[in-house]
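Re: that chain you flagged

S.,

Sorry for the slow reply, it's been a week of failed gels. I finally had a moment to sit down with the sequence you sent. For the record, here it is as I used it:
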Amino acid sequence: MSENMIHFFNQKKEGHHRLKARLILIVMSLAFVLSACSAQEAGIKDKLEDTQNVKEHITIAAVGDSLTEGIGDQNKKGYAGITRDKIEAVDGVQSVTLKNYAIKGSRTVDLLKRLKEKKVQDGLKDADYIFFTIGGNDLMHVVRQNVLNLTFAPFQKEQGPFEERFKTILAQLREHNDHAKIMYVSMYNPFKFSLSELRDIDEVVKDWNAAAEKELKKDGNADMIDVADLFEDDKDEKLLADDDFHPNQKGYSLMANRLFSEVKKEGLPKE
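Prediction finished late last night. Pasting the structure tokens below so you have them in one place:
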């Protein structure tokens, strides 16, 4: 073998080792963030086309993971809190109560346990809207378990069980509230900027979002708010927090805009 070929293979091997080292470092950093981490303000009234007999007092229940909790938002509101403010600013609405039961680091298995708690069940019961995010930590779990040999296979293997748990989550939400509008905010690729070499995870996220949307459509009163494209490109304005995983205030604000657009399109609940 020529010296040039030996040099080429050595460079390729070193690059592979560097990628693994970076991946391990980022996974460890995110694990620390998820375990250590314990908007736009209302102004002029937003006039919708039909505000006749709109409910004066609206209740939102929120469940899920750190995205619904709002980790990374300097204002500590997250997309749920910002959307609450937007709804409260609609002409005819007097107050909007947000009951947020989301917990950072939650996977689908954790949310299923959370939905068995009486406090959460009581909060869901009277809600007009149910906001939730889930799945990002399920993806992270697959990454952690396969950090030294990351391929499509383990994601594909886990997609079926994820879909079954997601289906059960929807069933439990409906068991405790048969009338609320359920709004699921989609997953996005958290490695987009921290590990550009893992862009293939975009396809995994797309497949998992499609699986979630399929179950949501079966409900008849549930929607997926797709936000993955918001984090697809490295825009001039940074949309992620310093951990390069969670959105910052601007990122959450853009998510809230998407969610509120759907709220406006469907119309607010009536008395």
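What I noticed first: Residues 2-13, 33-44 have pLDDT under 50 and may be disordered.

Talk soon,
D.
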